[in-house]
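ok trying this again, last paste got cut off
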Amino acid sequence: MSLSYRGAAIVTIPALCLLATLGTWLWSRDAGLEIREKIELRQERIANTRELLVVMLNAETGVRGYLLSGDPEFLEPDRIAQKSLPIALANLKKSIGSDPKQLAQLDSIQSRIQSLQKLMAALKIVYSAPAQSILLKQDQREMDALRQEINATQAIDQAGLNRERDNLSDLQSLIQSVQQLFTVAGILSTLGGIYLFQLLEQELQQREAKIQTRDSLINALTNDIIDGVVILDRSGQIETVNPALIEMFGYTSVDLLECPLMRLFAQATTAKSQPLPELITWLQQQPQRDRIWQLTAYRKDGTSLPIELSLSKIQQGEQTIAIVRDVSEQINLMKQLEFHLKAAEKLNLALISSNFTLNSRNQELAQFAYATAHDLKTPLRGIATLSEWIEEEVKPYSSEQLDLNLQLLRQRTYRLNNLIDGLWEYSNLGQTPVDPEPIELAIFLEAIKTALLLPLNFKIEVHPTDLQMIVCKVHLRKVLEELLENALKHHDALAVTEHDLGGASQDTHRGQIGICVELVGTQIEFVITDDGPGIDREHHQRVFRLFETLKSRDVYESTGIGLAIVKKLVDRVGGKIWLATPASGKGLAVHFTWPQFPLA
């Protein structure tokens, strides 16, 4: 037999024993489970029929006690029976399954129980002694018949139970015998495998000793090697070269046969009659790194070739293997790398200079923005104050149009003031570093909800969550407050006042806002929904632009900066924000994601 067949036989014998043992165990387990299920089913039916009989006996005894004493407390077992009997009958029917014979017995038992219940019901309302006596005799006959049927059913189940127990005992005996058999077979197969392994190991050692030298030479000279391989004899003369070396230097195998390896390191102009230095002595004077020499060789046409040379002795012989690797491509790559590194250094210096200039410009821009905001707000406050003074001065001569114009003047002034504040906040967003800190989301959201000034007819519902985060609280609070205030300001329920409610409950015309939180991967998704007028899908991206408002500022006062600030904060932490329509089809759902923990 070949080695592969013998090895397969060594592995197959114990494997077959193991598979047989496993198959027997699986079969015995399934068979045992099936028998145990049948035993449990038989026991369950016996217990159910016993429970039916006990319940009916207790009910009958209670009714008889009531007839003798007239005390209603004796009827308690009867009331218990009326509640428990349907459940017990259903359990018994479930345990019987689809056996037609036992289902017929169950129908007979059920009819007997119904007859007994009717007789006991009649006994509770009949007061004449003769009638009660007749009913009691009928009740006694029905109870005796019920007891006989239940006893017969239990006898059948008990006989089946005994058979299943005998089957289980036989199965356990069979399993024990099979286990003993497979134990002996496993021991024998293991001993046989050990013996076959010993024979195989002896043969492998003999073969390994014969082919060790041949394999080392064949493996070194394989045509798949891209490096040049040279076999040198004991005197340093070339015995064999591989095709890669011939292609590398342009020589033929005949040209290099019995030539010293030093011939590859001599220029073509060197006379062949001139003696060459000894290879080892010459190599000791050349640059070396990790037993590899970095040298310059010469092709047959006289062109130079940068190479790496390594030498190794062949065990059990006096030959030497020389590995020659062409590194001209690596040298060219190193030169290109050095060129690119110098260019990268120059670019890095330019970037450092540009970054410094940009930081200086940013500081100047921040100072300019602060000064501009401060200088613009001062005259705006003056304009608002002057409009109030003018209104007081011309009050005796005032007209409706003049009052409207002064009101519009102050409104435009306040709008410009709010725009300046919003621009200042937008331009300075994230300039001041804020350290992240751990928060309990449930507590955090409840605090934001409590801090909001809700109209009478509004309700904010925060869905429960046990998530935790490590975030810059001020930034996340800003986003949530802006979205909640936006939902409140644009809700159509704001038009409903207490007078409109007409003394009705606060739940009437109530606007509702919901906050849901869910962990999605490493991000926490917040969903803020409202039942307001909503936003058309075509405007879902437009609302996040700076100064964008869907309503005219003369109709609704807004700067158009709030949602732009929200988007900028969400983008800074690597999150996303988008709008959607709730499943109800009414209102608006704002989704945004935020990392649960700070990004590394």
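PB: full thing came through this time. The domain at 434-595 is CATH 3.30.565.10 (Heat Shock Protein 90).
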